[in-house]
Amino acid sequence: MAKARRHTSKKKIGQIPGSVIYTGEKASQKLFIESYDYNLDHYIEKELLNVEECFSFEEGTITWININGLNHVKAIEKIGEHYELHPLVLEDIVNISQRPKIDEYNDYLFVVLRMLYYDANENIVSEQVSFILGSDYVLTFQESEGDVFDSVRERIRHAKGRVRSMGADYLLYVLIDAIVDHYFSVIEILGDKIEDFETSIFSGNVDDDISQKIQNLKREILRVRRAIFPLREVLNRIEKNDSNLINKNTITYYRDVYDHLIQVSENIDIYREMIWSLMDMYMTTISNKMNEVMKVLTIMASIFIPLTFIAGIYGMNFEYIPELQYRYSYFILWGVMIILFIGMLIYFKRKKWL
Fold it and tell me: Which of 71, 95, 154, 182 has the fewest CB atoms found within 10 Å of its own CB?
């Protein structure tokens, strides 16, 4: 039975702009907030028990607050009120159908990305992640726990790389870079799936539902493409941004992420062409198999047409057929039919029809 489509936009129809309404399906998700407060010589990691703990951190440090649970609208509104976020920003944070984008405000930047990964059932998951970049903080909003930022957490904990010595703009770069790097893992799995399908089709060992599997893979590629392509515009705008929130020395790192994203986009375009070729290849294989069957049936029909003709003549109920009274007519008839059969096989073989 076909799965019913979700129309999350219905929740927004008729609402006042700036209305903070969660449009996802995870209404029972618990609120989880973690914070990382650090500088070159200082580091504190905490799981915050309530929203109010997000409002007080030491001066001279960089703070990363990660909020999981977009269904907790009241908590998000409190955070927005403290950090003076625009109502439209709060609306976009809890509306999980956002296209990757960047909005510039006086005191902060608002960035929306899509985080991609495969779940335990090998189904691709596209989750919205929203970023608020301030002068000395980064806020991230996720729908549920579980992300691709573990490498960033390790770098902060153990002071690996430059993250502890750089500003909040570098932290935003590191988080975006982690998402883009995970895109490579996703497209690598897609590439392996395409190669497996190619091998199966070429070898002739295909399942009955191979066409449905190829169609599902095509949908996955299109879903990845929709998540990745708008991000190029986001990174391009960051690179050309003259905001005081992004240091000129950090632009080089964003440019590096942009180069990685171009590489991912090119691979997606290649896989998109390959999946169309894969469907054509499958249909060609099916057509060739059908042609082989029709060729065999045609050859068999061609062989038996003259034999049926001879048998039809001598099966007629006429009294005066010359060979009927001959003693060896039956055996001669069999001999002629066998010779015709063998002769036609030899002819077909020479023509390479067999």
Answer: 154
Number of H helices, E strands in the chain: 7, 7
pLDDT at residue 245 is higher than 60? yes
Measured between alpha carbons, how far is 342 from 142 in angstroms, rounded to an integer? 76
Answer whether 186's CB lies under 8 Å from 216's CB: no
Length of the chain: 354
Any bridge partners for residue 185, and if so which?
none
Tokens of 268: 């997606």
Residue 176 CB partners (closer than 8 Å, separation 6+) = 111, 113, 131, 235, 254, 257
- Beta carbons of 115 and 147 less than 8 angstroms apart: yes
pLDDT at 317: 65
User: Phi then psi for 86, rounded to 5 degrees?
Assistant: -65, 145
Helix (H/G/I), strand (E/B), else coil: 210: helix
Nearest to 180 by CA among 154, 158, 157, 149: 149
Closest CA to 110 of 132, 94, 79, 83: 132
DSSP single-letter state for residue 1 = -
Say how many CA atoms lie within 13 Å of 307 toward its Cβ. 15
Kindly indicate the confidence band of residue 284, based on its pLDDT and cuts at 50, 70 and 90.
Answer: confident
pLDDT over 70 percentage in the chain: 92
pLDDT digits (tens, 9 = 90+) for 95-141: 988 899 999 998 999 999 999 988 877 788 889 999 999 999 999 99
Bridge partner list, 35: 46, 65
User: Once rounded to an integer, what is the mean pLDDT over residues 142-171?
Assistant: 91
> Can you tell me whether residue 72 is helix, strand or coil?
coil
Contacts of 182 (CB under 8 A, 6+ apart): 115, 116, 117, 148
Looking at residue 124, its amino acid is: I
Other beta carbons within 10 Å of 340: 16
